[in-house]
């Protein structure tokens, strides 16, 4: 299971990603800046596959990936899906991501849902969750564009019920236009109770192992990383990456509203 939400405002884009993993998986390395193909990229690293589930670059582009458990794999994947996120993290805009997704190159990956966000194009009229990502679903054989609204959920167990419950509690906590603070509280919550259905998920075999909050403002990216169950970690680690150009937004690179 993983859960993704986002919102946009005059300050830029805020994106929240709960990463849920099986117990026993290696602890991820916290976000820092890497240079990939001469592009500065901010991301955490999964040491098991040496890839990542979320990355943001100096062009104001965010790429993130959720596993798709609903489509059976016809062959064993040869590459970690986290390697795909790393490869796309150098893209300069959303068209660049689309052009970098040839089907032949995807056959080595297990099914996934990939989302791309870009700060370029946000205006002073943008607010709430009106920022529309581009999203693609790969089922192991075909790639297609899909529409996504927050929350986006991946789950190997009863995906429809889990998605409906998490959508209900997001609306209950934040209404139609949740604030940054409300989204943070949502990702740390145990509604309706602490367990497999809560956003901060707890099962005997798996749990939420981190929360990543990415803020892209007028002149830079701040990645706040809650290393551990979000319900327990009070203070995030923070890493900052300046953008290659300033955008006509009200900059906000302060501390996280935890």
Describe it:
The protein has helices spanning 81-88, 94-99, 103-106, 159-174, 180-187, and strands at residues 2-9, 12-22, 29-36, 39-45, 54-57, 61-67, 112-118, 134-138, 143-146, 152-154, 206-216, 220-227, 237-242. By secondary structure, it is an alpha+beta fold. The longest helix has 16 residues, at 159-174. The relative contact order is 0.21.
Number of helices, where a helix is a run of at least 4 consecutive DSSP H or I residues: 5
| Count of β-strands | 13
Large-scale geometry: globular
How large is the radius of gyration?
17 Å
H and E string: EEEEEEHHHEEEEHHEEE
Helix and strand content put the structural class at alpha+beta
Average per-residue pLDDT, rounded, comes to 89
Which strand order spans the largest sheet, edge to edge or round the barrel?
A: 3-4-5-6-7-8-9
Q: Helical proportion?
A: 10-25%
Largest sheet: 7 strands, antiparallel
Oligomer: single chain
Share in β-strands: 25-35%
Structure characteristics:
single chain, 13 strands, 258 residues, seven-stranded antiparallel beta sheet
Summed up, what is this model?
With 258 residues, the chain is of the alpha+beta class.
What order do the helices and strands come in, and which of them pair?
Blueprint: E1 2-9, E2 12-22, E3 29-36, E4 39-45, E5 54-57, E6 61-67, H1 81-88, H2 94-99, H3 103-106, E7 112-118, E8 134-138, E9 143-146, E10 152-154, H4 159-174, H5 180-187, E11 206-216, E12 220-227, E13 237-242
Antiparallel strand pairs: 1-2, 1-10, 2-11, 3-4, 4-5, 5-6, 6-7, 7-8, 8-9, 11-12, 12-13
């Amino acid at each position: 299971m993983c859960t993704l939400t986002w919102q946009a405002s005059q300050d830029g884009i805020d994106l929240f990603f709960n990463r849920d993993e099986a117990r026993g998986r290696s602890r991820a390395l916290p976000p820092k800046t890497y240079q990939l193909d001469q592009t500065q990229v901010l991301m955490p690293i999964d040491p098991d596959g040496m890839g990542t589930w979320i990355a943001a670059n100096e062009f104001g582009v965010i790429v993130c990936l959720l596993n798709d458990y609903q489509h059976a794999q016809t062959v064993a994947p040869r590459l970690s899906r986290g390697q795909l996120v790393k490869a796309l993290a150098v893209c300069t805009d959303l068209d660049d991501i689309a052009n970098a997704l040839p089907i032949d190159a995807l056959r080595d990956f297990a099914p996934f849902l990939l989302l791309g966000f870009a700060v370029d194009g946000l205006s002073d009229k943008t607010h709430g969750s009106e920022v529309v990502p581009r999203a693609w679903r790969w089922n192991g054989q075909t790639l297609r564009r899909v529409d996504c609204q927050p929350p986006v959920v991946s789950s190997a167990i009863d995906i429809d019920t889990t998605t409906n419950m998490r959508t209900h509690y997001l609306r209950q906590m934040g209404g139609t236009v949740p604030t940054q603070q409300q989204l943070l509280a949502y990702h740390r919550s145990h509604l309706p109770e602490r367990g497999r259905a809560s956003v901060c998920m707890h099962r005997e075999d798996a749990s939420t192992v981190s929360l990543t909050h990415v803020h892209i403002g007028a002149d830079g990216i701040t990645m706040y990383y809650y290393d551990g169950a979000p319900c327990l970690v009070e203070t995030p680690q923070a890493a900052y990456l300046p953008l290659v150009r300033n955008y006509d937004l009200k900059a906000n690179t302060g501390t996280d509203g935890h």
